[in-house]
């Protein structure tokens, strides 16, 4: 795993062009994990957020940019201001102007994920294109907290040997849906669109004029469709401008008027509830809007031939929707007294009694022993379990018992089997998914309260001129190429040693980048043997 050393050829970029093209690639991993993005000129702290979304990181760890022997990060409380400089004060355009076309972005100082950032070109803004955007890339982001490049390779080495005693543990930790080769430009760009709600709010992004201001009443032009639901036209919808994103193009968060929401197609509200979207607001580009006269009557382009996906009896979710008379755009209902009573009425006309089934009654010694018994019928509706739902009367060896319908197991060929399995799926999997969604909503609300974007009031602390790029007196000097003279680096000498990554277990203790090098020279590991294969156990 030799460290790749690449240096972009120095070239003169046309800084009058508004879009900067970057390539982001993880060092020391083969095959390469990389992204190519295009963004308006931005500061390093804004680039940090774009990189996080493009690569797929969670943003839970510290980061820094290494440029010309200096380290830049967000100067939050606790950050050593003697070692790091303010990443809000250095922009991509200034780097290109200085001829610094490649630099390093490090994320998670323990795992030390080092990204090579290369400024490839400056471009004119394309029509009908939102920036920032990802245009190409390859392979999935490594799992967070897997132990850096060492842990990444060890993880997949273990997963390649199912007989390994740690195989099951690591597979469970990694998750069944992780595919190291998976990459989707569309998914990355969906993540970037979500940034428009706050990225681009700061005055530093304002390189254009805007046609509308906050509070303006606007109307959507004819022919404009919903960005997520392409079969829903928005022409004629009226709203009030809530926020402005000074990106390319300038876009607006529009809050629909009550009259618009009342006249909106019912499918719109259903889909928003299903997907967790906010039906009352939507982001629109400037070219899609026009001023709305308050006296002008509302005219909406409603879809006359909107056909939702037909329900399929082969789909488990659709079979449940059929029970409740829902469409494919409706979310599955959660279990409560009303929905469970409705499901019971459905099953009364479907299940035939008596029938044989197996279940696991709990014995006195807390051991589970499989039982086979005769299910006589449904228990009284008042006997419904709040967690397991419908109960059945089951004839045991000595007396009649009540067992949850979702706990009964039938042979696959039994005519009641599919209905019982569907109910079991609704009681267990659907309710678990609903609980997870509620937990995610709570986490999102907590994150919204602690917004990662720096408080604009913090700019007053530094009192610098927005129109003048911040530079030290010696910043224009030629950057030192010799690593020995590269100045301050990430972390300080007294950084805590990173804890051992989980669930990776190493044969030897990990060595942090800022720890003394094991070879005994007294220099930091990153300045000595980090780049030498022998230090990593290579040939």
Description:
By secondary structure, the protein is an alpha+beta fold. It has helices at about 45-55, 90-100, 150-160, 165-175, 185-195, 260-265, 265-275, 315-325, 335-350, 415-450, 460, and strands at about 20-25, 35-40, 65, 70-75, 85, 100-105, 115-125, 135-140, 215-220, 240-245, 250-255, 280-285, 290, 355-360, 370-380, 390-395, 400-405. It folds into 3 domains: about 20-200, Roll (Structural Genomics Hypothetical 15.5 Kd Protein In mrcA-pckA Intergenic Region, Chain A); about 205-290, SH3 type barrels, CATH 2.30.30.50; about 315-430, Roll (SH3 type barrels), CATH 2.30.30.530. The protein is about 25% helix and about 20% strand. The strands form 3 sheets. Strands 5-4-3-6-7-1-2-8 form an 8-stranded mixed sheet. Strand 1 and strand 2 (about 35-40) form a beta hairpin. The longest helix has about 35 residues, at about 415-450. The protein is flat, with a radius of gyration of 30 Å.
């Amino acid at each position: 795993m030799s460290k790749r050393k690449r240096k972009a050829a120095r070239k003169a970029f046309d800084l009058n062009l508004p879009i900067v093209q970057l390539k982001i690639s993880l060092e020391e991993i083969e095959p390469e994990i990389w992204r190519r993005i295009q963004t308006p000129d931005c500061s390093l702290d804004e680039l940090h957020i774009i990189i996080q979304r493009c690569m797929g990181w969670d943003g839970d760890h510290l980061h820094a940019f290494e440029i010309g022997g200096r380290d830049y990060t967000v100067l939050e409380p606790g950050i050593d201001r003697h070692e790091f400089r303010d990443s809000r004060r250095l922009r991509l355009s200034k780097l290109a102007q200085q001829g610094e076309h490649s630099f390093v972005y490090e994320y998670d100082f323990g795992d030390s994920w080092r990204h090579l950032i290369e400024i490839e070109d400056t471009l004119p803004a394309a029509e009908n294109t939102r920036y920032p955007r990802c245009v190409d890339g390859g392979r999935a982001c490594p799992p967070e907290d897997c132990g850096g490049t060492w842990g990444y390779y060890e993880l997949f080495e273990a997963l390649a040997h199912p007989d390994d005693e740690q195989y099951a543990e690591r597979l469970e930790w990694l998750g069944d849906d992780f595919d190291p080769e998976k990459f989707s430009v569309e998914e990355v760009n969906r993540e970037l669109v979500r940034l428009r709600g706050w990225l681009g709010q700061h005055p530093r992004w304002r390189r254009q004029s805007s046609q509308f201001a906050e509070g303006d009443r606007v109307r959507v032009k004819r022919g404009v469709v919903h960005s997520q639901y392409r079969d829903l036209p928005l022409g004629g919808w009226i709203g009030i401008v809530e926020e402005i994103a000074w990106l390319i193009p300038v876009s607006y968060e529009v809050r629909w008027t009550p009259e618009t929401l009342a006249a909106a197609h019912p499918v719109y509200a259903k889909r928003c509830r299903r997907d967790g979207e906010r039906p009352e607001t939507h982001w629109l580009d400037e070219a899609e809007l026009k001023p709305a006269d308050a006296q002008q009557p509302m005219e909406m382009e409603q879809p006359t031939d909107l056909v939702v996906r037909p329900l399929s009896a082969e789909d488990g979710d659709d079979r449940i929707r059929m029970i409740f008379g829902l469409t494919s755009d409706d979310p599955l209902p959660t279990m409560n007294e009303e929905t469970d009573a409705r499901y019971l009425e459905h099953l009364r006309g479907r299940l035939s009694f008596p029938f044989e089934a197996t279940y696991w009654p709990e014995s006195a010694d807390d051991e589970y022993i499989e039982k086979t018994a005769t299910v006589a019928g449904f228990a009284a509706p008042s006997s419904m379990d709040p967690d397991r739902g419908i109960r059945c009367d089951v004839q045991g060896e000595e007396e009649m018992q009540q067992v949850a319908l979702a706990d009964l197991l039938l042979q696959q060929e039994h005519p009641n089997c599919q209905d019982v399995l569907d109910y079991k799926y609704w009681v267990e999997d659907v309710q678990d998914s609903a609980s997870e969604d509620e937990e995610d909503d709570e986490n999102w609300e907590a994150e919204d309260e602690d917004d990662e974007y720096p408080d604009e009031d913090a700019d007053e602390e530094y009192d610098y001129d927005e129109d003048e790029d911040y530079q030290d007196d010696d910043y224009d000097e030629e950057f030192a190429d010799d690593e020995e003279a590269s100045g301050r680096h990430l972390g300080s000498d007294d950084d805590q040693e990173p804890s051992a990554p989980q669930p990776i277990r190493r044969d030897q203790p990990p060595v942090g980048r800022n720890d003394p090098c094991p070879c005994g020279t007294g220099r930091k590991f990153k300045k000595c043997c980090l780049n030498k294969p022998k230090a990593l156990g290579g040939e």
